[in-house]
Amino acid sequence: MSKKSWAAKGFSILLTIFVLVGCGSPVEPGRRGADEVKVSFWGTPEEIGIITEALAPWQAEHPEIKIVFEHTPYTGYISKILTRIAGGAAPDIIATEVDYFVTFATKGVLEDLTPYETSDPKGFDKSDFFPQIIDRFTYQGKLLAVPRDIAPFACVFYNKKVFDEAKLPYPTDDWTWSDMLRLARELTKKDSAGRVTQYGFYTWAWENFIYGNGGGLVDNVKKPTRTLLDDDRSIMGLQFYADLSNLYEAMPTPTAFMNFGMGADRMFANGRIAMFLSGIWEAPQFRNYSFEWDVVMFPKNDKGIRAFGTGGTGYAILKSSKHKKAAWEVIKALTGPEGQRQFAKRGLAQPARISVAESDAFAGDTAAPANKKMLNKAVQYSVFSPFHPKWREIEEKYIRPKLDLIFSGKKTAAEAARELAPEVNAQLAQTE
Predict the structure, then answer these.
(1) Could you give the CA distance from residue 406 to residue 395 in angstroms, rounded to a whole number?
(2) In the chain, how many domains are there?
(3) What is the Rg, in whole angstroms, of the alpha carbon atoms belonging to the chain?
(4) Do residues 146 and 180 share a domain?
(5) pTM for the whole thing?
(6) Same domain, 236 and 132
(7) pLDDT for residue 432
């Protein structure tokens, strides 16, 4: 499976090394009066470079604080952080994406940032952030993390050459599921032996077809009590997704990827996939290929409903930190306008700050994709994963095996969903 692969929402490229990056050469090691603030995060070497580069001017102006970045691989990130907390060797600040946040918040390990925010109105303006991501990082009325980015699964990347060769017009933001299906089928090609040589569409974001059809994973995202996977609208959305592969053969299966010997990103860049639904984080790699492409918003269903899943990243202070005041200053720097501008211009992220998202660093940036400004509108249609301490376990242990049966054509969406619902409901009734 591609970028998301059931857990990663945005920045989940795995590294197997543990790196300490000292940002802030103006602070000499051992200098008296310098508070050392440790920041734990995951990400690529490029992200490390962006963060340190963006914070260099701030660090030069704040010699009383030394920032130490601690790279922790995304795999096992939660368990590693919790183990360090239990062992008394935790960092001061952690990066957290929107799903990992649920675990950290419900474990009670995060500092309430509300007092810092309310006492520092000039240094931190919460109203400049998309309210959806602020709301996600607020638990029991307490702001527990400050957003850096938001990441709707709303980008349908399309290969212009493939469309041009087929003499088909490019999709637009007001298109529908029927339009997408028609284009996907028209852009799928087979050889004389009946083997697909070019697929019309691909995505890992199956949730979009539930949300976008008026269904849902649960009855209430913030306080889920029962699943809606067995709702007729959810079932129809899941079946539509499965049919793209099993009925229409317009979307590659895992076996197809093995046959081509490349992943979805390479197949898209090489013209083997015409449309690829994912998130804006795919942009940097596509900029490295020499082909013309753009993005369009995930379509409305034929009844005019539009919705899709989303990710996002923020920074939180651990309660165990001994440098909380300094850590708050570092968080303001990490999520400040300049840092978010740097991430936006490199194509890695949609800024969580509205002012930056609407600026020349993102919406007005001429670098591909030209239509990325549509993501600022897309935020209003975004749906977060259920806020439940067991949800990640529920997905992995109960939902994924049943979905595999649907997506492989071994069961219909109706059959699998109705078998699955009682299992999920039983787990939702538990809080630990």
Answers:
(1) 15
(2) 2
(3) 22
(4) no
(5) 0.91
(6) no
(7) 61
